[in-house]
Amino acid sequence: RLYLPTRCCLMGSPLRRLCRMEAAVVRCLPGEPKLTISFCLQGSHKHMLRDQDEPLGKVLARISNGIAKNQSKAKKSKKNRGQEQPDEAAEPTVVKLFYDGEEVPETVLNAEAWQDGSVLQVGDVKYSVQRNAPTFTTAELPVSLLAGFPVCPKLEVEFGNVQDCEFTWFRENCPHTRSEAPGKASDQDSGWTQVGCERVYIPSNQDISFRLKLSCTPKDGSRGGLAKELVSVGAVEAGPGVCLFDNRHAFTAKVTDWPTVRVVSYNILADIYAQTDLSKTVLYPYCAPYALQLDYRQNLIKKELAGYNCDIICLQEVDKGVYVDSLTPALDAFGLNGVFKVKEKQHEGLATFYRRSKFRLLSSHDIMLSEALSSDPMHAELLEKVSANGALKNKILQRSTSLQVLLLTIKVCVANTHLYWHPKGGNVRLVQMGVALKHLSHVISEVAPGAPLVFCGDFNSTPNAGNSRIVPTHADWSSSGPEESCSMELLSDIPPLLSACGLPAYTNYVRGFQGCLDYIFIQPDCMQVEQVIPLPSLEEVTTYEALPSVAHPSDHIALVCDLRWNP
């Protein structure tokens, strides 16, 4: 098949007449006042916005007049250069629309005239009209490209399916110089060499210093639309070499077979926290500044997550823009759908992804823990106990901590949270956990009785915090001093949960703290742990003193395990 870029249509050339008919794409939806008509004319792309109730003849006349104006401009240009030939009366270009071999009357309204399969004739050139054809509404390449790291375009298709689209990747034949206009191929470039034909391309070291180009065709099954060309803003750069997660990928080379499911829980460090002066000078002064930049860290995060071949991914501290522009396109390309829960009054939140070949989303039951505590009658008893200490109650109700809850097919309940962060906030976290477990128990009993629970997150709690029964003498009740101290018992209707990855020495490793804060909790009577992916060794973690580093994008380490559903 011959692919012709939309920016050079070869109109009217012998090659054009030998090729399949070019497309004129029409977007026309009921209830909308306008329709659009897009096609290539005399080497340039035309995009016309017209009223649906306008007579066809007005559009055809507009196209013909546009050609006449261009011809007049060309003649004036030649005359100014002294190349003008004797005046000849230029005949107007014939523009007609045909359907089933019959000319469509010019009085027919646009909405009815532009039918799928009709033929637009402009002079001696004919176009096949595609009404509501698959069309890219979004098509972008990431800004930062690193050798050895997957390049995942951000794509959104109207009237089509991203999974059906066709992709061809090219590498520029000559190294890119920064003086060239970003994102555009040079008119005097030396061409491009095809290097791939999948949705995701992983640049090699041979691609370093060269730009990439993607030609992608939107499709819906076998029905295709107009191809689009994307050229990278900059050239591929060298990657960081060995990353902290590379050795772990040796244990996750393949997707698991059902009934085994691979689960990840990972705090990926929100950009709004990585870029503060506090982060750069106090929390992570040992980390190279460029390694804290979002574009750099996104490359590492996408490669790490892709290499785990997971079925369920629970992420914390996910910037809204990162979810939309980076994680969703990347993980969608690797077979996962995602759901995002932003924190109230924040720009980051929780994201849970699931493999669509194994799961389907049945329902979501997200809550903000403080809001649920203050307004849901099921938490009235707990609220009454907390209200005995006004200072503690106010602190709890000011928190925007959320709980993300998904019910997936095969009736599994997946929960994801990121509890209050303060080192002296143990009492707040106990109450938050009490609200979370009560809510999860209610969702499972009311919506999916018997569904097993997988509860992931950054709980900001060391292993001695407990998770099923909290006694009144628990040390965390007085974690923030006597003014906010309280004493109560918390019981859960959910049977005791098991930490699937055990109790590692650390899941968070920074200069001032090393400890286990992250967990994947499961119900051991419903599932068993088949494999825990080993965490990086202390020697690996401290190669660059602590985390994050040039070899690892976060101050947390991902927990990864394989769980087998019991029949």
From TrEMBL:
GO CC terms: mitochondrial matrix
Cofactor(s) in the UniProt record: Mg(2+)
GO molecular function annotations of the record: metal ion binding; poly(A)-specific ribonuclease activity
Location in the cell: Mitochondrion matrix
Keyword presence, Cell cycle: no
Domain of life: Eukaryota
Domain Endonuclease/exonuclease/phosphatase as annotated: residue spans: 265-556
Span list, region Disordered: 69-92
Domain 2',5'-phosphodiesterase 12-like N-terminal positions: 134-237
Keywords, alphabetical: Exonuclease, Hydrolase, Magnesium, Metal-binding, Mitochondrion, mRNA processing, Nuclease, Phosphoprotein, Transit peptide
Predominant location: mitochondrion
GO biological process, one term: nuclear-transcribed mRNA catabolic process, deadenylation-dependent decay
Position of the signal peptide: none
Family, as annotated: Belongs to the CCR4/nocturin family.
Protein name: 2',5'-phosphodiesterase 12
Taxonomic lineage from the root: Eukaryota, Metazoa, Chordata, Craniata, Vertebrata
